[in-house]
Design a protein that fits this description.
This protein is mostly helical. It has helices spanning about 5-30, 35-55, 60-89.
Length: about 90
């Protein structure tokens, strides 16, 4: 695989991940609350921005990487808090 093919493949992966995260964000609002939806939307936007960076430069920009990490950690923290609340009353 050439470098251009690899970039295109990685770019498509970020596109699909971004779309999936945005779909999960829409589903998460009624299921987990608006904060979980916002966290997943941040992940989706980060992936969509990363798509552009990967296609152009072959690397993910620090801002896109930060959005993906912060959104993912935020969503995970909300899920843990909801689980703790459900099991401990």
């Amino acid at each position: 695989m050439t470098g251009i093919d690899e970039r295109a493949r990685r770019s498509r992966a970020h596109l699909f991940s971004g779309i999936a995260a945005l779909v999960v964000a829409v589903i998460a609002v009624p299921a987990f609350g608006w904060l979980a939806g916002v966290a997943m939307a941040v992940v989706g936007v980060g992936n969509l921005l990363a798509r552009r960076d990967v296609r152009r430069d072959g690397e993910i920009a620090p801002a896109s990487r930060a959005l993906i990490i912060v959104g993912g950690l935020g969503f995970a923290a909300i899920c843990v808090l909801l689980a703790l609340r459900a099991f401990h009353g």
